[in-house]
Write a structure and sequence with these properties.
It contains 5 helices and 6 strands; from the N terminus they run βαβαβαββαβα. It is an alpha/beta fold. The N and C termini lie close together (6 Å). The mean pLDDT is 95. GO terms for molecular function: hydrolase activity. InterPro entries: AB_hydrolase_fold, RBBP9/YdeN.
């Protein structure tokens, strides 16, 4: 059985968010806690993720949301670890006016495909990242792309609850 590392974005994922629901429902899920959720620094977040992956005994799968997706991109470029796969939901565009200004060092994204299978899940009306940006990420990272239609930032406001369709995207790696 693989461990699913939950990688929330800026501000963490609260009640009603699909990541929180997955952690509650699936014992194989573990949230990677960050030093500072409100003023994220990519270097600090990378170190927390690297430590979390290093501490796992078996296979690892990522379930990333928002800024967590950009963290995965930075991690994939610098780590020596391997994982089984990643679901990357609602990647935010660092060039967007809506991108949190207090998020430091996340903008220089890799231009190489990931060394692991991945799926980018995006909405057509996400204020933090356009569908075009998500498509660009999927192409660059070598990821499959899933279009959820008009679901906003695919967070608790999207009303997905435990989001079984999302869980199905990573279930093959478990």
């Amino acid at each position: 059985m693989s461990t699913v590392l939950i990688l929330p974005g800026h501000g963490n994922s609260g009640a009603g968010h699909w990541q929180t629901e997955w952690e509650r429902l699936h014992p194989e899920c573990t949230r990677v806690m960050q030093v500072d959720w409100e003023s994220p620094d990519c270097i600090d977040w990378f170190e927390c993720l690297e430590k979390a992956v290093s501490s796992q005994q078996g296979d690892v799968v990522f379930a990333a949301h928002s800024l967590g997706c950009l963290l995965v991109a930075h991690w994939a470029e610098r780590t020596e670890h391997t994982i089984k796969g990643a679901v990357l939901v609602a990647p935010p565009d660092p060039q967007s006016v809506a991108f949190p200004s207090q998020s430091v060092n996340f903008s220089a994204l890799t231009s190489r495909p990931f060394a692991f299978p991945s799926v980018v899940v995006a909405s057509t009306n996400d204020v933090y990242g356009s569908f075009e940006f998500a498509t660009q990420c999927a192409t660059t990272w070598g990821s499959a792309l899933v279009n959820l239609g008009d679901r906003g930032h695919i967070n608790s406001d999207s009303g997905l609850g435990a989001w079984p369709e999302g869980w199905a995207l990573l279930a093959g790696w478990l």
